[in-house]
Structures are given as C-alpha cells and as structure tokens.
Design goal:
Elements (H helix, E strand, L loop, with lengths): L8 H8 L3 H8 L7 H13 L6 H13 L7 E7 L12 H14 L3 E6 L7 H10 L4 E7 L15 E5 L9 E5 L1 H14 L5 E6 H6 L3 H10 L11 E3 L20 H11 L3 E4 L1 H10 L9 E4 L10 E4 L2 H17 L11 E4 L2 E3 L19
Parallel strand pairs: 1-2, 1-3, 3-4, 4-5, 5-11, 6-7, 6-8, 8-9, 9-10
Antiparallel strand pairs: 10-12
Length: about 375
C-alpha cells in the first residue's frame, strides 16, 4: 500500500496562482504580506490538507543552533525604568537579563536592549524603530510600577513575552517567579521547623507588582493553620496618601518603625517571612536579634552559605524561559496579542539557614519589645 503524497508549498502555490515564496510567507504569518492574503492562503492550505513536516522543522532548528550566523536575528529586550540601566541596581532584574542573553545566544539570536524612557520616544515611534530594524521578537521586562500603562505597538508585527506582570496591557504571555508558591514554601518550612506564630512583612508596592501573589500565598497557608496561631499580614509602607506606594520605591526601603513596632508587639510572631533588607532597620531600632529574639526567613535569598534561611528565586531561569517561549512563538510564526495568554511560573529553591534554626521541642518564646 503506497503512502499518500504530502501536499507541498508548490502545490498550494500552483492552486492559488502565486509564487511559492508567497505561500511560505503566508503560512509563517509573516506581516510583510497583507492580512487578507495570509488568511486566504492559510485557508487554502488547510483545505488541501497541508501539514508541516516535524522532522524537517527539527532539522532546521538544529542547523540554526549549530551553524554560525554572520548576522543572527535580533530580539529586543525592552525596559522602562527611571534611567536606561537603572534596573541593573534592582534585585532580580540583572539576572533576568543575564538569563535571557545566555538563552538567546544558545538559540542563535542576538539580544539588544532598548530603553522606552528615551526623551521624546513614543510607543508608536518605538514600534516603527523595531519594525525598520526587522525585529519581530520582543521581551518586555523591567517596567516600573508607575509606568503601568498599555503599550501601543503595532502588535500584528510582533511576537512578545513579558517578564513579570508590568505593564498589564496588552495581555501577553509572561514568565515570572512563582511568588505564591515561594511564600507558601517558606510558611510550610517554618511549620516543619517548629514555629507556630508565623508572621509575614511584605512591601506593599512589591506585592502590587506581582499581582498580590505574595500576600495570597501567605493567606492561603494561614487558612489551613490553627486559628489561635494566626498573625495578620503586615504590609508597608502605609497606603496614605492615596496611591503613593504605587510610585517606584526601592525594594529595600525601610519599613516604618512605628507601624512595625505596633504589629510586632501586638502579635509577637516567632518567625517573620520577608526580605531581610525590608525590615532590618526596624529590627535594629527595636533591638531585636535574629534568631535569638525572632527568627527570619528571606524570600529573596542571595547567599546560600547557610547563614540565612530562605528561598532563592531562580531569576536566571525566568530570563531563559522567556526567550525559549518567544523563540517558539517565532518558530511557529505567531504574531499579535494572543487570544489566550499564558503564564509560566518558576519555583524557588529552599535553603536552611541560621536565621531560622530548628526549634522543634524547644519551646522558646519571642522577645517582647521594651
């Protein structure tokens, strides 16, 4: 029994009365062709039973990785920070970029940085610059909280993936650290180590930037705990004046000591889940020692030498996955705002540390602030 001959691009081109290159561009959804032409040829290909050859596609992808390209295709890494490279001074963002750069190089792309804060640069102008340079793949990264405004690009000409959630519009595929599971993991580890009254102090602006997933993780674990042990979530700074906390505040901003003192004195947590630099100034002012007076779990663990307990967030992997997903979109010629945007969450890695010692059976009580 003979195998039916596969429908080829040449077959479709002959039926449509166009050049085979036109068919190829249409099936790759290339924005160089009018949308009506793309839709007509895509419909004809479907009617004729055309299917891509997965073996050939794999070979093309493999050759693209192993063969040196004199002019590798460029991906744009778009940021909108207070200065062109201000994001390099912020936690996580340098690793996002490093991971994206490494993966782009591995896959045969060149990653170029573009700053949307250039004086006089509008969204429309940026879109035109990218189009003129032939750049169709975009990584949207490192946007300040006060720049959460919709990006008005000609999206029909681009594939794009966001790192984190900002800006919220348009709704694109995004990759981010799994802040909900990271906080939940910290809570569960604290329970395993023998702590009952578990507190959590989060920066309000940061929690907003991650769509409240940090606070959601803490409250979810609390809902499963014994009510007599519950310590309310502490968010800082205070939300007054209205929306002031939405402005970009450095991640290591000092927690207002008065509010922290009231929270600590009233609820006396045995351990605090936080970023250490969030609350260390307040701990110092209140003469609270870690871990003698209160234990601490760092949600943004940087050093894994055992001195600090916490969760290391795998920022490098976030950048890598963003480029992998974008490369897949480009490989499958998917442009525009996706009908169903997806989120890819990267889990953190737990490390035991001296700031949260195992106290099972110790019965140690937290210190009261005098």
């Amino acid at each position: 029994m003979t195998t039916p001959r596969r429908t080829t691009l040449a077959d479709i081109a002959k039926r449509a009365g166009v050049h085979v290159t036109t068919v190829s561009l249409a099936l790759r959804n290339n924005p160089r062709l009018p949308e009506a032409t793309r839709q007509r040829l895509q419909k004809l290909a479907k009617e004729m039973g055309y299917q891509k050859d997965p073996v050939l596609q794999s070979l093309v992808a493999y050759r693209g990785q192993v063969m040196e390209r004199r002019n590798p295709p460029t991906l744009a890494y778009l940021t909108n920070w207070d200065t062109k490279f201000g994001w390099r001074e912020n936690i996580a963002h340098p690793e996002f970029h490093a991971g994206a750069t490494a993966k782009a190089d591995e896959l045969g792309f060149k990653l170029d940085h573009f700053w949307m804060g250039e004086p006089g640069l509008t969204h429309r102008r940026m879109s035109q610059i990218l189009e003129t340079r032939g750049i169709t793949g975009l990584i949207i990264a490192s946007h300040r909280r006060d720049t959460d405004v919709a990006l008005h690009f000609d999206w029909s000409r681009f594939s794009a993936v966001k790192i984190d959630y900002l800006p919220h519009q348009p709704q694109l595929h995004n990759v981010t650290n799994d802040q909900c599971s990271i906080v939940r993991e910290a809570f569960r580890r604290a329970k395993e180590l023998g702590y009952e009254r578990i507190g959590c102090a989060l920066h309000r602006g940061w929690d907003h930037a991650v769509d409240q997933l940090g606070s959601a993780g803490f409250l979810t674990e609390q809902s499963r705990d014994d009510p007599k042990h519950l310590v309310p979530l502490h968010l800082f700074p205070e939300p007054e004046p209205a929306e002031a906390w939405l402005m970009e505040i450095e991640v290591d901003a000092v927690a207002p000591t008065a509010a922290f003192r009231r929270w600590y004195e009233e609820h006396r947590p045995e351990v605090i889940i936080t970023k250490r630099s969030f609350i260390q100034p307040a701990l110092d002012e209140l003469n609270l020692r870690v871990p003698e007076d209160v234990a601490l779990i760092d949600l943004f663990l940087e050093n894994t030498d055992g001195k600090i307990a916490g969760v290391r967030q795998n920022h490098h992997a976030v950048g890598e996955l963003a480029v992998e997903i974008l490369a897949g979109q480009l490989h499958n010629h998917k442009f525009g705002v996706p009908e169903i945007p997806t989120s890819t969450f990267v889990e953190g890695t737990w490390f035991n540390g001296a700031t949260c010692p195992d106290r099972t059976g110790e019965g140690v009580r937290p210190k009261q602030v005098e």
